[in-house]
Design goal:
- The chain is α+β, with helices and mostly antiparallel strands.
- It is built from 7 helices and 13 strands.
- Helix 1 packs antiparallel against helix 2, helix 1 packs antiparallel against helix 7 and helix 3 packs antiparallel against helix 5.
Length: 430
């Protein structure tokens, strides 16, 4: 655009030289195109200048200088200041020129020059518009190129991200496969552990049951062992007692009942081996040795030393008294069966209540009910023992006793108890 205006300015200088106006030519050379156009319009007194007050060409010149930044402009001086200076100078020149009357040819040439400038400016505007359009298209293409470049860069970035994502996806798939395999292995191991635990529980249950059974068996065996020990001890004791009894039976004596000591209600057998309570009291002489209140009887023979043994059958009886008594016992009235009163005895009451009549009495717990009772006395040892002959078991023993005078076998069949206890006591041979 600046080159075109320069050409116009050269054309104007050429016209001025043709018109032989050196002053105007010098002015064109010193000023830019916009100032020349302005001066030209003022010179030719065109009405358009009045409509272009404010020096539009000068203002356009300033805007073009600022926007295009061309090197063709000769000076950066403000258009307003140039116009003011030019107006002063040009007014003086105009006054001098007014003195000269230009010819009609000159006016026609100036008019032609103005029209030429107008058409030139119009063409320049068209060229400028086309240039701007091309420039705009170029800028649009440049912008599109930049946009496409950015899109390509974005696609490259996206491609890189996608590649990274695919790589990450591959890593994730690999990790997933590894974790899946580990989980499968874990499941297999867990199933194996569960199976082993079940087997262990089964074995534990079996072992626990066996232990429980073993405990039960052990308890049973312990109980049986205890029973065996008890039985063994009992058998041993029985054997010992049997041996003792056998040994004591060696001291067996022949005992016969003494009728002079028998209570009048007692009935003795002819051989003096049995005694029972009769239905009525007999009329017998009241001898000093006879029991007159307690239904008792003594043996004929007394012992003041050594050992003696005898046996009495008590089968079928619910009450009885057996033992030995000192010769000096009280036989009249109600008697008390204690060692201090001269009696060493055991008895049965109420069919199964056994007791040793010591001071105080001792209740006896017998496993079996005796059918025959053996009585052993060791005078020197101060011993009186009672045994169940059939079971070879010990009933009771008085030990560490002090005997004086003779000791006699003592028998009491007790009351009949309405016929339940009518069975006699029988002295049996050993």
């Amino acid at each position: 655009m600046c080159d075109v205006l320069h050409l116009v300015c050269v054309f104007c200088v050429f016209v001025c030289r043709v018109m032989r106006n050196e002053h105007l030519c010098k002015h064109f050379l010193k000023t830019n195109v916009y100032d020349i156009l302005c001066d030209f319009l003022i010179l030719n007194k065109l009405k358009q200048h009045s409509s272009l007050s404010g020096h539009v060409f000068c203002q356009a010149h300033e805007m073009d200088s600022i926007n295009e930044n061309t090197d063709f402009v000769l000076s950066k001086v403000s258009s307003d200041e140039k116009c003011s200076e030019f107006k002063g100078n040009f007014t003086e020149e105009l006054e001098s020129e007014r003195k000269v009357n230009p010819s009609k040819g000159t006016k026609a040439l100036l008019i032609l020059l103005g029209l030429t400038l107008v058409f030139a400016l119009g063409g320049l505007c068209i060229v400028w518009i086309l240039y701007n359009n091309k420039h705009a298209d170029f800028e649009s293409l440049n912008e599109q190129h930049v946009m496409v470049s950015k899109q390509l860069a974005a696609q490259m970035i996206n491609s890189t991200v996608l590649q990274k994502g695919m790589k990450r996806e591959d890593e994730l798939r690999t990790n997933y496969t590894r974790v899946k395999e580990q989980l499968q292995l874990h499941d297999v191991l867990q199933k194996g552990m569960i199976r082993e635990q079940d087997e262990l529980r089964t074995n534990y249950t079996r072992v626990k049951e066996q232990l429980q059974l073993h405990d039960v068996l052990q308890k049973v065996m312990k109980r049986e062992q205890d029973e065996l020990r008890t039985n063994y001890t009992r058998v041993k004791e029985q054997l010992q007692l049997h041996d003792d009894l056998k040994r004591m039976q060696q001291y067996a004596v022949d005992v016969t009942l003494n009728p002079d000591t028998a209570h009048p209600s007692l009935i003795l057998s002819d051989d003096g081996k049995q005694v029972r309570l009769g239905d009525k009291r007999q009329k017998l002489p009241d001898k000093p040795e006879r029991f007159n209140t307690s239904v008792c009887v003594l043996g004929k023979e007394g012992f003041s030393s050594g050992r003696f043994y005898f046996e009495v059958q008590v089968k079928g009886k619910t009450e009885w008294d057996l033992g030995v008594a000192r010769e000096s016992i009280n036989r009249k009235g109600q008697i008390i069966l204690t060692p201090s009163r001269g009696f060493w005895t055991v008895w049965l009451r109420n069919e199964n209540e056994y007791a040793a009549l010591s001071d105080p009495p001792v209740s006896l717990s017998l496993r079996v009910k005796p059918q025959r009772v053996g009585v052993f006395v060791d005078y020197e040892e101060g011993l009186v023992s009672f045994y169940d002959v059939k079971s070879s078991s010990h009933i009771y023993s008085y030990t560490d006793q002090s005997f004086t005078g003779k000791l006699y076998p003592y028998f009491c069949p007790s009351l009949n108890n309405g016929g339940k206890n009518s069975t006699p006591l029988i002295i049996t041979p050993v």
